[in-house]
Amino acid sequence: MSLFRLLAGFIRQHWRPYSLSALMLLGVSILGVLIPRRVGHIIDELVAHRLSRADLIAQLAVLVAMGVAIYFLRVGWRLNLFAAAYQLGATLRTRLYRTLSEQGPGFYHGRRTGDLMARATNDIDAIEMAAGEAMLAGFDGSTTLILVVAMMTAGIDWRLGLAALLPFPFMAFGFWRISDHIHHAWQDSLGRFSKLNNHVQETLSGVRTVRALGLQARNTRELSRLAEDAARSSLNAQRWEAAFEPVVGLALSSSAVITLGYGGYLVWHHQLSIGSMTSFSMYLSQLIWPMFAAGWVLSLLKRGRAAWGRLGPLLGETPSVLDAGTLDTIKPDALAYRAVSFVYPGQTEPALADVTLSLAPGQTIGLVGPTGSGKSTLLRLLLRQYPLQQGEIVWNDISIEEYRLQTLRGIISWVPQEPFLFSASVADNIALVKPESSREDVERVARLAAVHDDIQRLPHGYDTPVGEKGVALSGGQRQRIAIARALLADAPLLLLDDALSAVDTHTEAQILQHLREARRGRTVIIVSHRLSAVADADHIAVLKQGRITERGTHRELVEHDGWYASQWRYQQLEASLDEL
Ligand code: ADP
Fold first, then answer.
1. CA of residue 168 to ligand 1 center, whole Å
2. 81, 117, 291, 423 — which has fewest CB within 10 A?
3. How far apart are CA 491 and CA 414, in angstroms?
4. Ligand 1 pocket, 351 CB below 6 A?
5. What does 412-439 look like in DSSP terms, one character per residue?
6. What sign has the CA pseudo-torsion 271, 276, 282, 284?
């Protein structure tokens, strides 16, 4: 869709404020062109000594009243139009947010946060200006132009009108050439702003790493280079915009010379009155605005088009995981992976190869294996963060793709290795999915996650702000808060994706014990690099390079003498050394 179709659709949708604005504007333009005519008339009457003092005062009062009316109409129509344009900005931002929140990790892979932020701010601002200011200036400029030219040619003298307009086609050609440059200049400028935004965002998010590695100087140099580039590019766009003004000036002064020369000739030969000549000059000066408006509109539309060229494709992108299922209730039941194979987009090696696994309701299953063996991928597919490629995952014999995403995710509590805490209190972070929970409930799950004592030691206990703006918590504390959050959600399926990696073994055992006690038919999948976390599971699967190589209970696997047995012995030895 082009920017013009977007704007046309939007104007059609908001036809009321736009037509009200148009009507008010028409009033402004008509009053505007009547003024010079009246002034010319008054001058002619004065020259002919036909105007009494009282008449003159009355005529002047009419002029003042017209000026006041123009003032109010201008305020009214601008307010109407801008209200509509800001609405477009809000609509686009909401659409962008919805698109972004529907996308899975496949979409975000290879996209940068700073760039997405720039599109949500700078680019939408540019489109908003195209819908507001550009429409305002375009509408205002063209009606003024039509009326003024009509008054100059039909109302005063067509010969003088045509002569005075001779320089304008040259000006239009100049505008057309300049606006082409402006389009490219803005495209470049918006892209550079995105790059600058990315750099700032990444440096701030990774500020600790930057400092720890002593990269401040290098990062600052890079930032100043990007900032210089962005500034130079914006200046270049502004330079082209600035080129409009002299072109307008040149055209208008040529017109003024023609008017004086040819108009003077006509007055000399009594073919034009002095009053008409005055009116004509006033009309000529009224052309300044439409000319500037034309330049301004062209540049705003070019900027808007460059911005829409960046934003439109993003809005049009289909979600990386389709929400095409229709079922909206799930009975917690047996879960099974059937011959699931998966290759990440852009990769050649499969992350999962022919994985078959089943889980009876209420069971706990442990997934272990070396780093990169596909454990997290197995969970990501169940959460439908990526579309399934081969094989299927079924719940109660129904493929998970047949459920609505919201329904499927609603019955799963997922705790990743690095959970995200929002800028809110500890209690609010725990009660994230159940904000109506009582403090008792929040404390109960915090105890189950063995984090209650830690929270009580915080400066304001459960009311201590955490997240980006709050107190810094250790990785283990964050993980346990996330586990408390998942327990409060009380979903029938709990996925712990190495969610205890930063917790010591003693606390880990305590939490797992609590989990077993509070299980109440909940199915649990525990992914862990530490085997002690899965030793009590009903079933354990060992993954290696995407394939299940061993499976059984802890006892069976230890006896089997494969990867699990050797890893178990190694970790036991490590633990006993730690205790020394
Ligand atoms: P584990 O959880 O066992 O450490 P993962 O499931 O995270 O392993 O990864 C399995 C394989 O898939 C690894 O080889 C990893 O490099 C690759 N992988 C993981 N995430 C992505 C991704 N977003 N894009 C491409 N490859 C990925």
1. 64
2. 423
3. 9
4. yes
5. EEEE-SS----SSBHHHHHTSS-TT--H
6. negative
Contacts within 8 Å (CB) and 24+ apart, 313-318: 314/96, 314/99, 314/116, 314/119, 315/92, 315/95, 315/96, 315/99, 316/1, 317/99, 317/103, 317/107
| Residue at 172: amino acid letter | A
Ligand 1 center to residue 113 CA distance, Å? 21
Total count of residues recorded for the chain = 580
The alpha carbon of residue 113 and the mean position of all alpha carbons in its chain are separated, in whole angstroms, by: 9
**What are 420's two structure tokens?**
């995200």
417 lines ligand 1 (CB under 6 A): no
The closest residue, in CA terms, to atom 21 on ligand 1 is 344
Which ligand 1 atom sits closest to the C-alpha of 378?
A: 6
Atom 16 of ligand 1 has which residue's CA nearest to it? 372
- Å from CA of 515 to ligand 1 middle: 28
CB 85 within 8 A of CB 137: no
The 10 Å Cβ neighbour count of residue 475 is 13
What does the alpha-carbon distance between residue 430 and residue 497 come to, in Å, rounded to a whole number? 18
Atom number in ligand 1 closest to CA 498: 2
348 lines ligand 1 (CB under 6 A): no
Distance of alpha carbon 359 from alpha carbon 263, whole angstroms: 95
Q: Cβ distance 167 to 250 under 8 Å?
A: yes
Q: Does ligand 1 come within 6 angstroms of the Cβ of 373?
A: yes
Q: Which of 109, 376, 495 has most ligand 1 atoms within 8 Å of CB, for mutation?
A: 376
Q: Please tell me whether residue 548 adopts helix, strand or coil conformation.
A: strand
Specify the residue with its C-alpha closest to ligand 1, atom 13: 372
Both tokens assigned to 68: 């006041």
Which residue puts its alpha carbon closest to atom 27 of ligand 1? Answer: 344
Beta carbons of 225 and 192 less than 8 angstroms apart: no
- 547 has which bridge partners? 544
Other beta carbons within 10 Å of 173? 11
Q: Which residue among 340, 347, 497 is best mutated to probe the pocket of ligand 1, counting the most ligand atoms within 8 A of its Cβ?
A: 347
Q: How far is CA 192 from CA 186, 229, 231, in A?
A: 10, 7, 9
The enclosing H or E element of 194 equals helix 168-205
* Distance in angstroms (rounded) separating the CA atoms of residues 534 and 29: 79
Compute mean pLDDT per 10 residues along the chain, 580 residues long, and list them.
85 88 89 87 87 88 93 88 85 90 84 87 90 85 89 88 90 88 89 90 86 88 93 91 87 92 92 89 86 86 90 87 82 87 91 92 92 94 92 90 90 90 92 91 94 92 83 88 92 91 87 82 90 91 94 91 91 79
| CB of 109 shorter than 6 A to ligand 1 | yes
Q: Could you report the per-residue pLDDT of 526-560, keeping only the tens digit for each?
A: 999 889 889 889 999 999 999 999 999 999 999 98
What is the model's pTM? Answer: 0.75
Q: Cα–Cα distance between 271 and 156 in angstroms, integer? A: 11
Structure tokens at 304: 């808007």
